[in-house]
Each structure stands twice: as structure tokens, then as C-alpha cells.
Amino acid sequence: MNQPDHIIRGDELPATSRTGLHLPDGGDDRLFYGRVKWAQLRDGLSLHWSDCEELQDFVTENTVDPRVSFVLFLQGQSQVSYGDLSLTLGHPSSRHAPEGVAVSMSEPVQFRRQARRGSHIRKLVVSLTPDWFEGRGEGVGATDGAIRRFMGSHLTPRVWKPSSRLLTLADQMLNPPGYDALLASLYLESRALDIACEALASLGEATTVVEHGLRPQEYRRLQRLVEMLDSGEADSWSLDHIARETGVNATTLQRQFRSLKGMTVFEYQRGRRLNSAREALEREGATVTEAAWRAGYNSPANFATAFKRQFGISPRQVRSRV
């Protein structure tokens, strides 16, 4: 049966997830309101999905065994890390088309996710372990080889664009019919395998190992750029100045940066400053005017509009919760 919306508390996570997921600092605070599901559909095939509002800023973590995970964000954005690999999954704006990310882990890693109060997250994660692939043949085609190489890699993310058909299947998984247990499991399993199949098929489409559609040297260059942007050093720079420091022209920079982050350089900068403003409101007791100044806005009204578009909640609502 389709589960109703309800509140999930911190002390319920380990038993509910059955994956060892927990809050590093413990606690029994209310974390989510909505629907969250973890399911072992078959040996080596697992599913996690959520359609919920995050009620607190919090971090969850657990140890993830070797597997390939296919993450499909339909709404919202999350900061996650798999060991030393940090990723921004999804987009803060619903105007962006959903994207899928495949991550291969050849050894156990520590997984962490940062939740943001007020965010609404709709996502699916389908995971296949090495045991699932055993006995299914080695394969000699180009796609088979690409899949095997990806399975043998460690923390090398790949992005794929889900088809409209797959997005429909994902929505069906988030809103399944009211079947009894056996049919419900078959319903979810068939669609989970469709997601895995499309994601794995996309691995064979490129002849060069790439990160977010970028060559390795391009990816590393942009990672250095992101570190510089996050430091605040480039806050007052023009796009041409940033491009010169990065070593490419402005057009190439925008195209490559969008491939990596799904947004322009200045959209990223605006989001980073708005996050800083939110922290000032929540943790430092800043006024809305002070937070607007920190985000680079002279007008508190314009700041409030951008803030609500980013987080789905107004600055005054955030401040009233402090």
C-alpha cells in the first residue's frame, strides 16, 4: 500500500532505513514530513525514495558497501558526499530539467547528506551491488565494456539525462497503486530496473571517460574554480575576469560550468551568497536587511524575492524560527 504522509524523527532513522543511516550527533528531533521509503527489492537490488519536506538543518550518514547507485532528483537540491567525493545533486529551481547521476563505489565509503530546513525533496536512488551483476555474463559489446569499466571505478560520477518515459516511471514509483505486498514489490522492481538499464546504457554513449560531460582536465580546472568562488575571492569580479583566471574564454567557461553545476557562474554565486545570508539569519540572528547586504542586495524586497525563489520560504519566516 502507498504510505501516508507522516513525520520521521531522528531516533527512527536506523530502524526505518535498515541501512545504518543515523544522525552523527544522535537526537530525536523531527526531521521529515512526507513519505520516505527504503526497500530491498531483491538480493543486490535496493531502492530509496523520498517525497518530503525537511523540517530541520541536519546531517545524516552511514557506511555504504560497494555498489553502483543511480540517483534521480525530481525536485530540490542536496549536498552529499561519498567519502572524499562531494556532489551537489538536483537544482534549487524547478525550472531546471531533472538529471540523473550514477556513482560507482568499489570499496566501502562513508556517505553524508546535508539537509536544509524548508526544502522539499523528491528523489529516487536505485542501487545494484557487484553480486547482482554476477552470473549475467561478461558481454563483449561496447556498452558491456563501458559498464564493466564503470563498475570497476571508484567515486567517478557520471551524469545522464533521463528520458520523459523514465520520468513518468519515477513519478509512478513515488505514487504507486495500492497493491498488496507481492504486486507492490514487482511494480517497484520493474521500474527500478528500467532506471538502472537507461543509466547503464548511457555509459556506452561516450568514447572518452568524462565527468559531467567534461574531460578530466576540464573537470579539475572547474573544481579549482569552484574552490575559488567559494572562498569569496571572485565576488567582485566580472565574468571575463573569472574566465581569464580560469584560462578559458567566457563562452567556454559558461558552457563547461553549466555542464558541471547545471547553472551559470553568476547563478552559482547568487546561490552561494543566499546560503550565506540564510546562515546569518538562522545562526547569527541577523536582521533581514543585514542578510540582504551579505547576499549583495541593496533592496531587502529584491532579496526577499530571490530568497523565497531559492528556498521556498521567506527570510522573515526563517528568522521567526530562530
TrEMBL record:
Per the record, the GO terms for biological process are:
positive regulation of metabolic process
Tell me the domain of life.
Answer: Bacteria
Q: Which organism is it from?
A: Stutzerimonas stutzeri (Pseudomonas stutzeri)
- The segment annotated Disordered runs over 1-21
Looking at the keywords, is Disulfide bond present? no
Stored InterPro entries = Homeodomain-like_sf, HTH_AraC, HTH_AraC-typ_CS, PchR_regulatory_protein, Tscrpt_reg_AraC-type_HTH
| Descriptive protein name | AraC-like DNA-binding protein
* Gene3D superfamilies per the UniProt record, alphabetical: Homeodomain-like (1.10.10.60)
Q: Where is the composition biased (Basic and acidic residues)?
A: 1-12
> Which Pfam families does the record associate with it?
HTH_18
In this protein, which residues make up the domain named HTH araC/xylS-type?
A: 223-321
Q: Name one GO molecular function term.
A: sequence-specific DNA binding
PANTHER family named in the record: REGULATORY PROTEIN PCHR
Keywords linked to the UniProt accession: DNA-binding, Transcription, Transcription regulation
